[in-house]
Batch of 2 targets.
Target 1
Amino acid sequence: MMSNENKRLNDIISHCKEYGFIFPGSEIYDGLQAVYDYGPWGSELKKNIHDLWWNTMTRRYENIVGIDAAILMHPTTWKASGHVDNFNDPMIDNKDSKKRYRVDHLIESHAAGLKEKGNEKEALELLDKAEALLAKDDFTGLKKLIENYRIVCPLSGTCNWTDIRQFNLMFSTQFGSTSSADEADNLVYLRPETAQGIFVNFLNVQKSARMKIPFGIAQVGKAFRNEIVARQFIFRMREFEQMEMQFFVRPGTQKEWYEFWKEERLKWHYSLGIPKEKFRYHNHTKLAHYADAACDIEYEFPMGFKEVEGIHSRTDFDLRNHQEYSKKKMQYFDSETDPSSGKPYGNYIPYVIETSIGLDRTVLMVICEAYTEEDLSDGGKKDSRVVMRFSPALAPVKLAVLPLLKKDGLPEAARKIMDDCKNHFRCFYEEKDTIGKRYRRMDAIGTPFCVTVDHQTLQDDTVTLRYRDTMLQDRIPAAQVKDIVWKAVQH
Ligand code: ATP
């Protein structure tokens, strides 16, 4: 039996494919695991979220500028960042199915199964024990835990496990044309996070844009992780996009800035029109090697509360290490007066607060929130619709222009509205099928407004404006359509 949560996620996945949001990558070759392609409406939605984040970061906050760094970086970057040594996950293989699992995921899904069966207490006990062992990297203890709880491989159903080992999550490739002898020298990585492109450009940006601390650098770009257990649709992909901002502050002020960004970022999530109770903070107890404080903003997906964004106080770890590995100074000269000494603060390596959000995960969040199945049965007549209740600012298509009939000069009148609107926001023109079917298709991709052009339009130049959520209709002058829609789709 499929749980309700899984059913909802599966319905969403099918809807995304059928209505042109997201397709499995390379589908004609049976797909490539954990790789997805965005279709016509998914790519519009993703771009709208991208633009909203970018505009918030680089416009609302006057002291943040953007960059667009390369995916390929000098290999030493990843030594300095700690990714070569630390970007590992403990993995375990089942000897019968030969399948490899991330230990934390294996234990989490077993705990979720226990919860579903009503054994809440046992599930929490298991998670507590696992967290303590993971914090100590106690692999022997973790393997014992897996065996004691008889956690089996979902494929083979056996508890026949190898020892736990660490695997690096970075993808590597060869740079330039190489002979096998010097392959190792030419090894480069596909970046596993966008943050390092910001750190290595810290001084270039600070000097060229004349930035004064505190200031931030924002970036949106692809990142790659060879996730071993990549499941749950676009929640965990091997190729994905991050929207990251590194905020450089005076050492000693990081705590205040960390709290500031924690709050600002949660407000941004609320601004997407998602109810507050669908979010929560998860404060980290086990900190990454670079952090002195960290939390996640979690959203309640159909499969439970999960991370969408991380906020990390990264100390001066990255800049200090880049200084050490590159032998280039990463210092900032702060000419402001320190009230305690009466002298300028002088030279220091700034501390960093990072806000790091997955663009694809945000797309999934927005899709999950919007997806609504509605029963519209009226007396004996059965009817239903799927409507994507996107906020108008995020909706892939803002306005559908629909002539009631494909004759009598109605298409020409509708075309005039298209021409008036199409350069201002994404419009969609359609004349095929009954108007009811066309409305349903627009509901399914989340178009907030439809205007219908009928015979009355030819007489008095009015149209019906139909609202997606209420399905109510107003009669308005055709000349007002552009302004009404334009106003409604602003964030
Ligand atoms: P997780 O614990 O889910 O693996 P993480 O803590 O490793 O995530 P970060 O390194 O903090 O994630 O990355 C910041 C953000 O990037 C995450 O909050 C998430 O939204 C996104 N992200 C990370 N890995 C993936 C992935 N494989 N697919 C899609 N988005 C991802």
Target 2
Amino acid sequence: MQPVLITLEEFIYQRQKDFPFASGELSGLLRDIALASKIIQRDLSKAGLVDHILGKTGSVNIQGEEVKKLDDFANNMLIQCLQTSGECCGVASEEEDTFISFHEKNRHQKSKYVVLFDPLDGSSNIDVGAPVGTIFSIYKRVSPVGEPCTNADFLQKGTEQVAAGYVMYGSSTMLFYTTGAGVNGFTLDPSIGEFCLSHPDVKTPNSEKTYSCNQGNYHSFENGVKEFINYCQSSEGKKPFSLRYIGSMVADFHRNMIKGGIFLYPNTADAPKGKLRLMYECNPLAFLQEQAGGKADWGGGRILEIQPKELHTRTPVFIGGENLVNRLLENLK
Ligand code: P6P
């Protein structure tokens, strides 16, 4: 007997019935993001072949990073899919200096939501075929419905997110998301073009086997971080931890969320305020991590409690199994 396939569409529809007042807009946004990710995956899978996309556009984004053509493609695909369906009033992207307000008064501006995303995180790995990811975060707007969205809609604390998730383009393409009722994961079956439920109700084990950081920055870490890394490497007589670091946050986060472990990107000499972006990398992953039973802190409190001051704010991040994050925070005291 074939196991019952539950597609993402079916799952969202079933869950929507749990929210009697759900208008279907949030479900529509998740469908839009899933559609964009299937198109992105299609072109990513040819990245090694299609040189007219591979490589650089020659432009530089606000992060000061060279923008590879697939970054541009992914960014434009997400904007197009979200704008076409009309379920949100605007978006903000790692690739855009400021937020984009969608202009149709009788469609977009009547929507209740805004979406932030990193269209293709870890894109420096594309040329070497390592996993990359799309990360997204959805908020209810704070500006009046019927008006254009404002900057304030995009500068809300992570605790205000109504949904968050990521798509990881790796050996398989997986979409994990939460709406605050746990984390569920779906794997793309390319033969039918559907994301199918593969990881229901994900919980992060409290295992102490893996830590994930750029060890090359060790000498610029503060002492508490060094003490924690020394603990992982010695782990007081037990088997030392394994260091696993792909250099693509979605892939490193995903591994730890499923198997346990901790990901840390502290302040470094090159990134005194941290490297990773709060609004469209750390907040969505922190929401997922807490929903899967782990913890996400910046060294002085919950990532989700940070009050953002500008769209591309960066933050240190310590995220993973609760015991390991708590141990690191003890070292930082
Ligand atoms: P480093 C990729 O550029 C990224 O934004 C994250 O995906 C990743 O975790 C981090 O930067 C890697 O940074 O300094 O170790 O190369």
